[in-house]
Structure formats: structure tokens, C-alpha cells
Amino acid sequence: MDLNFHQVVKHFGKTKALSGLTLNLAGNKIIGILGRNGAGKSTALQLAAGLLKPSAGNVSVLGEKPFNSLRISANTLLVHEGMTFPPALRLGTILDELERTYPSFDRKLARNLLDHFGIPSDAFHIQLSRGMKNTFNMVAGIASRTPLSMFDEPLNGMDAGVRSDLIQVLLKEYISHPRMILLSGHQLEGVEDLFEEIVILHEGRLLHHENADEFKERFVRISGPCSVVRRAASTEKVLDLHDTLPGMSEAIIMMKPGTALIMSEGNGLKSTSVSLGDAYVALTRKKGGIDRVYTDAADGK
Ligand SMILES: Nc1ncnc2c1ncn2[C@@H]1O[C@H](COP(=O)(O)OP(=O)(O)OP(=O)(O)O)[C@@H](O)[C@H]1O
Predict the structure, then answer these.
(1) ipTM of the modeled complex
(2) Contact 15 CB / ligand 1 (< 6 Å)
(3) Which end of the chain is more exposed for a tag (fewer CB within 10 A), N or C?
(4) What fold is seen in the domain 218-298?
(5) Ligand 1 in contact with 244 (CB < 6 A)?
(6) Is 212 exposed, middle or buried (0-12, 13-18, 19+ CB in 10 A)?
């Protein structure tokens, strides 16, 4: 599987959702698509699924433009919260339709997963709770086994048990039927361990594309006495530095690839790892953070 964006621009009226996205993804991998609200993640996924046409630039899936392509729509599926199905169809009939559309759809897997999650196949989609709707959508997406499977904020609204089961299902499925799986979202707990690569979009462009483990290893949180934290951070790229208790500070620092932070003992400095969520949020945080709002207000700005 390969998915390429070349200088892709997407406008919605005056809003520029993507402003020159270039990104090349290849191979059967689980890839995390991360970014702040409005970064362009859903737009990029909809372009890859052929649901939208780029305003400029090129998107290609398996060497073909996905927009209006029957071949690409049989090979890609985008699962998202806004997915709608004909209201007159029961869930079982929706699965029959999906089986007709996607050559690799596994009807038995879909049925067993719905049974496991207690979702009756004679229910209507519209009758399901938010978490159940998202569970059904995800089951449909997983069972379709399309070579490019995309999930946009798939775990929203699910309880912890369903969430952890679905994360395991994703992993089992990926191992038994390798494909390119793109997962976008903000609630990364439990999911981030699945990522082999991460892509960070920011303001409609690519900010970062890297091996997920290498990316995570580059971030470290240090805390301790203010002067010690400031000294330790002075040689590194500091993404977030703030005071915690009186006289104490904390910083998230990003190291250059292949380097490690040297910690001297006995000066009260502690270092801990940074979650992927905290890392990308720190990387894309506006200068000054939320404190800036209050200092600006106090300064009459
Ligand atoms: N159909 C639309 N009409 C108008 N503007 C849109 C539309 N879809 C997206 N946008 C705008 O494009 C920008 C990118 O939106 P997009 O949904 O791709 O971001 P996102 O990274 O998925 O955000 P989130 O994490 O909040 O879901 C936003 O400014 C959004 O308001």
C-alpha cells in the first residue's frame, strides 16, 4: 500500500484546511495521524478515501487518484463518527451491503464482534448510543479488511472495556491481515503503543513524520529546582518550561535525533518519559501557553 500527498491544498470557502501537504506513506503499518484541533487530519483522511477532491496538488493511493475511483473505494475505508447509513436498514443488512462492497469483508468476524459487544444485529444504527455507534462503525471498518483502513477518532465515547478490547482486536487483525492502518485522534491512551510511525499535522501542513519509538525517545520531562532545570534545559530545545511548586520548575525538552540527556546526580533533577500525546501537544503549543492569555489580560492587551 502506498499513499502520497503532494503539495495538497484544500479550501472550504475561505478556510484553508490543508495548505501544501506533502506526505509519503508506504507499507503495511499502523500509523498515528496526530495534530491539534483544526490541523487538517480529517480533511487529509477524507482526501485519501476519495470523499473529497483536492483544491490543488495531488493525492494518490496505489498510484491512482482516489476521488471518484471505484478501484480505490473498494480498497479503502474511512471510519469516522459522522458515518451515516440508510435509516431503514438494520445493522445486519448494513453488514450484508458492506460484504457486497468490500471483497475482503469478513462477515463472521463482524457478527462475532457485534455479539461480543452486545450490539443486536436487528437494531437500527440511529437507535444506538454514541459509544455503540462508534463501536459498530469500527467493527464494520475492521471486518472490511481494506488494504487502506482509516479510523478518524474511532474510540470516542466508548467505555474503557470496549476500548481496550477494540485496541486488542486492531492488533490481532493487523498481525493476521497486515494492511496500512491510519488512526487519528486525541485520546491516545492505549493506542499509542500500536503506532509504528507517527505523522503530526499542524496548520494544514506536515510538521513531523517519524518512527514512533524514535520520536518518543526524543522527549523527556525534567523537574527539580528552577535553576537546575533551567541550566539542564539551556542546551536543548525547550518546548514547555513552567514553575510548579515555589522554587521548582518542570520542562519538556526535545533532543536532537541520536542524542541523550546527561543528568548529573545529587542536584535534585528528575527525568521522566513523555507520552506521545504530551509530546505533540508541547511541540505545537503556542508560545507562552495558556499563561499568556492571563498575562496579556493583566497587561490590558
Ligand atoms: N466541510 C467543511 N466546511 C468548512 N470548513 C471545514 C470543513 N471541514 C473542515 N473545515 C475546516 O478545515 C480545518 C481543518 O479541519 P479538520 O476537520 O480537517 O481538522 P482536524 O485536524 O480533523 O481537527 P479535529 O482534531 O478538531 O477533528 C478547520 O479549520 C475546519 O474548520
Answers:
(1) 0.98
(2) yes
(3) C
(4) Alpha-Beta Plaits (3.30.70)
(5) no
(6) buried
